[in-house]
Amino acid sequence: MTGIIVVGVDGSETAMKAARTALGMAASLGATLHVVSAFDSDRTEVFGSGSDTWIVSDAGNAEKIAKNVASSLRTAETPVTYSAARGKPAEALIAEAARTNALMIVVGNRRMQGIGRVLGSVANSVAHNAPCDVYIAKTDSAK
Fold first, then answer.
1. How far is Cα 108 from Cα 121, in angstroms, rounded to an integer?
2. Pairing of β 44-49 and β 52-57
3. What is the DSSP letter of 40?
4. Rounded to the nearest 5 degrees, what angle is found at the Cα of 27, between the Cα atoms of 37 and 19?
5. Where are the domains of the chain?
6. Sorted alphabetically, which Pfam families does this protein's record hold (predicted)?
C-alpha cells in the first residue's frame, strides 16, 4: 500500500511519541510520513545587529520544528516529508490531510483526560472532523 500518513508535532515529547508511532505505521504500510507543525498567526519579528538582520516568524518556527522532527525520523525505507500549516493544530492537520489526500492522521492522546476532555483536545477535534482515518497514539505514559 502507498499513500501518506500525517502526524502533527509541536516540539513536545508527547508529540514526538506520536510521530514515532506514525513512522512505524508508515513503514508497515509502505506509506510516506508527512510531519506537520501548525502556526496560528503571521507574527514576524526582525532583529538586527550591524549589517546582520534576522527575521523570526511563527511560520518559520513551525517549519523548523517540523523539519527537525522529520530529519530525526528519516530512514532509508520510509520517505518523510514536512511542512508548516496555518491554523489551530486540529484545523491545520485536517487541512493538510485533505490537501495531501492522506490515508490517516496520527495524533497523541494528550489532554484527552480530565478537564482537557471536557474543553476539547486536538485528538477529539481531529477524530470528529478528519477526511480520513485517525489513529490516536497513547502518548501520556512512558513507552
1. 10
2. antiparallel
3. -
4. 25
5. 4-137
6. Usp
Region 125-132: what's the mean pLDDT?
94
Query: Looking at the chain, which runs of residues are DSSP E strands?
Result: 4-8, 32-39, 44-49, 52-57, 80-86, 104-108, 133-137
Residue 68 CB partners (closer than 8 Å, separation 6+): none
pLDDT confidence of residue 60? 81
pLDDT tens digits for 110-119? 754 444 444 4
Count of beta carbons in the 10 Å neighbourhood of residue 103: 19
CATH T-level fold of 4-137? Rossmann fold (3.40.50)
pLDDT over threshold 90, residue 97 = yes
Contacts of 97 (CB under 8 A, 6+ apart): 6, 105, 130, 131, 132
**105: its cell numbers:** 492522521
pTM of the predicted structure, to 2 decimals: 0.81
Q: Are 5 and 33 in contact (CB under 8 A)?
A: yes
